[in-house]
Amino acid sequence: MDLLKKFGERKHKFRDPIYGFIELNDSELKIIDTPIFQRLRRVHQLALTKYVYPSAEHSRFTHSMGVLQVATEIFLNIYRHSDHGLLSKEAGDPIGDIAKKLQILRFATLLHDIGHLPFSHAAEKLILQQKASHEQLGQHIIKHYPPIKEAIEERGIDTKIVAMLLDDKPLAEYFILKNIVSGQLDADRADYLLRDSYTCGVKYGEYDYKRYIQSFFLKENKNGQPQLCIEEKNIYLVEAFLMARYHYNLQVPYHRTRSGYDIALKKYIEHLKGENRFPEFVIFDENNNINSLDFEQFELFDDYSIFEMIKTDYKSDGNIWAKMLMRQEHLLPVFDHIKTIGGDNFLPYKSILRDLKDNGLKEEHDFFRFEKTLTVSKLLQKRDDEGDDKFPLGLIINDRPEPGNIMDYSNILSQLGKPIEIFRIYALKEHKETALELSKKAFTFFSELNDA
């Protein structure tokens, strides 16, 4: 294929349990061999989910390589099935321009998680005090970390363009690439659903990968912009993909036991922050923009860094949160309700919280609440008035010339568009009996009230 010849030889092969082989060129290998990328081997993809599913020990490193592979396969299939003019703005060398876009996409997907902190999402907001996200750290690294910057620039690519694909508002020319990196049916989700399910030993995130990567193509919408689309016959694929994500979310990252360990991790990080034990690796300006990043410190800041502190506190002062994170103790779930389509147990939830306090128990000391609202996909939310080019996926119905709204043609997706609300209460072991008794009392009261 002319595109691959322009793209360059990928002579470095890595075995992968999901895709068989992942191939890299020299520049991509240089990135992987940098200390800051090797650090991702020591950042678990699923944080403390390994305490629920023991084999979930995989890292952001393997996930990042997987996302590169998925994005490449999506792009190549779009190239095969779309008008090349929608992929290229270059009149003189369109294949060369498309090959350059593929390389930009591969760099962006390989580096999309480069800014993740220890324990990934579970600790990010606390450590950074909500001043920045891992995407913003990643953009700074791409533009300023010399070994990565040099590897990108040797391919004739501006690091600002690669970093832009980690942002929410890329230039219109790169809108399709952005959707592949982080849209609603993107390469990131596609990889972690398969990889996390595989390592956890569950089926919740599985879907038809081969058909998935072959389903996308480009079509010009009424605004004259290329839009990512699928054909009507593939609507079932989208339904299956999002159903897989729906079940995966509830059974893997938001599993009841995992949520309890997330609370313990949060409390322990608050303890570390109070003692100023985190390295000052990032400096913000007065507007909370990243001013500088200490790359040498960041290269060594990983899950193991925090676990060394956990082990120290576990041995020295018997810190309850360190004990939990060493898996010698755990919070006890005394209320667990997931509100999906219909039904509501919010009144018992509020009643139990009130009764716990009335019995002298202190929130964030004796008992803890976990509340989360999940949306399966923004794809399922109603479009705004910004125009079709803002909508990430069109649906081609019966060869109509313009993309339609996928939500108009699927009852399943319209139901999945409703948010999922999770309400949980956890208690320390010494308050187990009191908390369970109050929970049982509340449920009995409201059940009798409903039956009356």
TrEMBL record:
GO molecular function: dGTPase activity
Keywords tagged on the record: Hydrolase
Domain named HD: residues: 60-193
InterPro entries: dGTPase-like, HD/PDEase_dom, HD_domain
CDD domains, A to Z: HDc
Top-rank taxon, per record: Bacteria
Pfam families xref list: HD
Biological-process GO terms, alphabetical: dGTP catabolic process
Segments crossing the lipid bilayer: none
PANTHER family noted in UniProt: DEOXYNUCLEOSIDE TRIPHOSPHATE TRIPHOSPHOHYDROLASE, DEOXYNUCLEOSIDE TRIPHOSPHATE TRIPHOSPHOHYDROLASE SAMHD1
Protein name: HD superfamily phosphohydrolase
Species per Swiss-Prot/TrEMBL record: Desulfobacter postgatei 2ac9
